[in-house]
Amino acid sequence: MLLLKAEIIFLESGLSHDISTKIINRPGINLGNNLIFSGTITPIDNIEKFIRGNWYEVNIEMPNVENEAYQNISPFIVTGNTLTIQTGARKIGLGKIIDYLYYI
Description:
mainly beta; 1 helix; 9 strands; 48% strand
């Protein structure tokens, strides 16, 4: 499993409404080079919703990243690297990796 700590922003142009934190938010996380994995996004602060256009510090839990996948994406998992949050091909947010932990 890969756990990312990141700063993210949901784009006003990508979404028609703000996102509740009370439901599971599991979009695609594009780490670069079109390597996309689903990840559950949870805010670090106790907030009720992600307001589009604001930056938030979050944890992104990616349980389907296992050994072989991690070996392929590890060059992109670097503190300071950017990521894109997507639903299908539609870009709904951006982020920057603050820290990460990979464990089996």
